[in-house]
Specification:
Helix 6 links the parallel strand 1 and strand 2 (about 110). Helix 3 crosses helix 4. It is built from seven helices and two strands, in the order αααααβαβα. The chain has two domains: about 1-65, no CATH class; about 75-135, no CATH class. It is mainly alpha-helical and about 140 residues long. The longest helix has 15 residues, at about 120-135. Strands 1-2 form a two-stranded parallel sheet.
């Protein structure tokens, strides 16, 4: 599968961009339709992941299949933390953000309606960064 993905990324980037927009969910597909350059950025990112072969992406997927975050005890986080997440994220369900907000002491949860996996940074990145650096004490997950 990964060799095929690598070949597709290198030889059929438009197909990869189209498939990615569908896999990411409606919010992200709409963003790609409005801003096709973002779909091309995603394809370039994927091409970079496969640049040296399939071993790196295979390791990434293997890590996703293991219990995580085994090495991170989020209950020890002591800075002010806001967990930002797109409510319409089709890749990482909002329950993940809810879990982090529940397990990081004092964390606030910002579930943003209409935002997906990629739209949250594309459309809300400035807002998120302003909140993080606004008073110099912000945390980000």
């Amino acid at each position: 599968m990964h060799r095929a993905t690598r070949w597709l990324v290198q030889h059929k980037p438009a197909k990869v961009a189209g498939a990615a927009s569908g896999d990411l969910g409606p919010a992200d597909a709409a963003l790609f339709a409005q801003r096709p350059e973002l779909a091309q950025q995603l394809v370039r990112f994927m091409a970079g992941a496969y640049e040296q072969g399939v071993r790196g992406p295979l390791r990434d997927y293997a890590a996703l299949g293991r219990p995580w975050p085994a090495a991170i005890d989020v209950s020890t986080i002591r800075c002010r933390t806001t967990v930002w997440h797109g409510k319409d994220d089709a890749c990482v369900p909002p329950c993940h953000a809810e879990w982090y907000a529940a397990h990081i002491p004092g964390a606030q949860l910002r579930l943003l309606p209409g935002e997906g996996h990629l739209t949250i940074s594309a459309r809300r990145g400035a807002e998120i960064m302003a909140a993080v650096v606004g008073d110099g004490s912000g945390g980000l997950v």
